[in-house]
Structure formats: structure tokens, C-alpha cells
Amino acid sequence: MTVKDTQMLIKDMMKRLYEDDTFLPEENGDARERFFQSGTEILTTTDKVIKSYIRVSRDNREIERIPAYRVQHNNIAGFYKGGIRFNEHVNEEEVENLAVLMTLKNALHDLPYGGAKGGVVVSPNQYSTRELNMISKKYVQRFAPDIGPTHDIPAPDMGTNEETMDWMVGEFKTIHPGNNYMGAFTGKSVANGGAQGRREATGRGVYHSYLWLADSWASNVKEEEVPEGVHRQQLRSLHRVRNKNESGEPITAAVQGFGNVGSVAAQMADSCSRLNHRITAVSDHQVTLVNESGLDVDRLIKYQEKHRELPVSEELLSRIGVKADILPPEELVYQKVDVLFLAAVEDQITADNKELIHADIFVEGANAPIDKEADRYLHEQGKVVIPDVLANAGGVMVSYIEWKQDRVTYLYSEEEVLKDMTDHMSKSCEKVFDSYFREGLSGIRNTCYMHALKRLFTLLYRHGKLF
Ligand code: NAD
């Protein structure tokens, strides 16, 4: 999905909201039209795009000039919030789209944050720790006036982690002596004020959104309770997966991306006591590993934690005792499985390959892994897509807990953190799936956008911004 696609979807949903006379019934006629025009304009316009260059001296003494971004989309619901991505494909349009998605995600889950995102055009595994430390500190130096615990609060994303956040908060403290600094970044290490369980939170939340729909929700809903057509087909897909489980046959699953989000989602699925899965394929940027009888996920995770990648050869696989065929990374999405967890990068299922995909249920751990046309196609086929803004919010939910604990200097236990996150995720899922399946809206993603936009529009209206 491009930023234009996301903006188009916002416009479509705002039009529906305008036509829904049960929403804001006190405003009608010309005033209603003006308010909605103004609200649509605000929500499809980004507040601020900042581009800078980071100069870094490499270990070989060469000087490199690296583009870096911070995009702040909207803060009507609270301080700007969103991760910083280190990746060679980062560009301004991608960062802007991710910032808009953060505004929608935070609004959908009723978090008191707006949306932002950051990015640096760098491939982290080609840089030494010293070089990455310098890039992280310089990022903070460049963007310091626009970051802060009550203004814009970054967190880790692809290619960054708790170490990056620790370096960044350290630099922020140096630049702003005497100011509150702990809440300026979330996703820090626990030793440095981070929340217990933050690293696993996104992957756990991704799995929880799927478990909640396929198990808790679908088991309580009968076909005749949902509108005919696509909705029934989707409910049948969910029931088919559940029936498989009840008959003792494992649910097959594949996981694209075996980093922070994907490896945790894979582990949760593999060890789940409520639904029995067989993980038959996982991938990263170098390989897809396939075993129809099931992969040894725990051993792969141990290897990945040590080497930051999956084993890429027969020899490495046999050294860790894992049996698997080795295929190119792009093969993962074509696997014949019931559930596909997409936890790598954008645009993996597109207009070009949509007809070659076999799974029935798709869970978007990554942001925007399915493009607009493929999304529409999968929906029409009666497949179930749990969208990014719903599924991958576990990280920002726990970031909120971290930000709160940094304000009161209290450390929540890991149990408290994970319970808070899963309760919060269940509440959001119930809101979305209930209104989607029972009211017959067109697409789970549209339903998520509708809930988010209702909140954002109401705040814009109450703050007197719509004239
Ligand atoms: P990560 O850097 O820890 O892992 C990314 C993984 O994807 C790696 O295994 C990498 O090898 C793999 N990958 C990259 N390109 C690939 C390709 N073309 N095909 C297959 N695999 C590929 O990143 P992460 O934190 O796990 O983030 C993954 C996705 O989840 C990103 O889209 C990110 O924006 C999204 N996300 C992350 C968080 C979070 O808290 N980390 C929160 C919300 C959303």
C-alpha cells in the first residue's frame, strides 16, 4: 500500500461516515459538509516531514552521507509516536505511509498517541557496532528539537532494537540536560527503564489477534448470524480451521520474516495449547525453509538469536539438527498452508502474485504486506485478512505501559505487561470483528479504519479544529 492508497481509503471511509446520519447527528446540512471536508483534509495531510543527512565515518575511514527521516502525520489523539526503521529501502513515501498507519493504529486501539515514523537508509548488518552507535546518536542530534516525551516518542522497528533505543535515549539526555528524558524513547532495555516483555509484545499481539478471531470469536458465532456472501465464506474459512483442529489434524502455518515479530509469532503458534499448529515454512531475507512434517521452531529461534539470520545451507541445518528444504525467500507466500503470518516487509502479496496464494487466513505482522488490489481480491475470495493496524499493535500497547512507568518510576512485572496487552488486544478485536461480521461492512481493514476515523474525527470536532 502506498501513502496515496492509504489516503484514498481514508477519503472513502470519511465519505461513508458523512453519509451515516447516526454519527454526529447534531451536525447536518452545510455545516456537516464543511466539517467533513475539513476533517478529511486534515487527516489526509501530513503535519511535518523532516529530512536530514547523517554523516558517519566508517571503520575504513571513509565518510558516508546517509539520508534520514522523521515524519509526523497527526497528533490530535496525543503525542506523535512511531518506530525508527534502519533499512536500505527506506524512502520518504514509505516513512510517510507508515506514519499515517500509526495515527490510525493508535486511534483504533484508543491509545493516547498520534502517528509518526522514522527511517534511516542503511543496511544494519553491513555496519559495525561502533558505526551503528554513531548513526543512532547522530539521528538524535539531527531530530532532537522534534523529539521528546511529551512531543514525539520513537521506538524500535525493522533493523533497530533495544540497544539502539538505549543509545538514543542516552544521546537525548546529553542534548537536553536536566529535562525528563526516559519517556522520550520506548522499546529500551529493561535495565534502562524498558518494559518487561516489550521485545516479544508485537509478535505476541499478532498471534493473539489471530487466536482471538479463529478460536474465541469464531467458536461462538453461527453462520446464520452473519450476513450472506463474503462474510459467510470468511466465517466458513475460520470454522474450517477450527474443525481441523478439533478433528486432531494440525493447522498448517507459514511465517514470512523471522525477526523480532515473526519469530515470536512462530513460537506462539508452535507452542499454543488452544490451537495445534504445524509450522511448515519460515523465511527471512535470504531463504525459505520448508518441511511439510513441521519445522523445529525452537532450534531455528536459537540459531536466529545467535546469528541474526536463518541457516542458509544444508550443512548449517544439519549442524543444528533441523530438517528442511532450502528455497528462495520469495517462495514462502506460495506455500499450501491454512494460515500465513506476514512479518517481513511491505508489498509481498500484490496484484502480480495474488492468484498464486493458497492460504485462507492472513495475519499482517508487518505493515502493509498486502497491496490494495491483492487485498480486495483476497476479500472477494472469502479469505480472512487481519490487517496491520489491528494485528501488530502489541508493541505500541506495551510502549504505552513503558512510557507510563517511566513517568512514575515503577516497573510493571512481565505478567502485568502481557496481561494488559492481551486484554487490550482482545477488546480491540471484539470491537472490530463484531462490527465487521455482524454489520456486514466491506472488509476488516475498512472496519478498522472506520473505528479509527470516528475517534480522530470526534477529537478534531471536540477540539474545535473543523472550520
Ligand atoms: P526485524 O528486523 O527484527 O526482522 C525482519 C525480518 O524480516 C528479518 O528476519 C529479515 O531477514 C526478514 N526479511 C526482510 N526482507 C524480507 C523479504 N523480502 N522476505 C522475507 N523476509 C524478509 O524486524 P521486526 O521488528 O520483526 O519487524 C518486521 C515487520 O513488523 C516490519 O514491517 C515492521 O514495520 C513491523 N512491525 C514491527 C514492530 C516492532 O515492534 N518491532 C511493531 C509493528 C510493526
From TrEMBL:
GO molecular function, one term: oxidoreductase activity
Glutamate/phenylalanine/leucine/valine/L-tryptophan dehydrogenase C-terminal domain: residues covered: 229-464
InterPro entries assigned to the protein according to its UniProt record, in alphabetical order: Aminoacid_DH-like_N_sf, Glu/Leu/Phe/Val/Trp_DH, Glu/Leu/Phe/Val/Trp_DH_C, Glu/Leu/Phe/Val/Trp_DH_dimer, Glu/Leu/Phe/Val_DH_AS, Glu_DH, NAD(P)-bd_dom_sf, NAD_bind_Glu_DH
Annotated keywords: Oxidoreductase
Keyword hit for Oxidoreductase: yes
Family, per entry: Belongs to the Glu/Leu/Phe/Val dehydrogenases family.
Protein name: Glutamate dehydrogenase
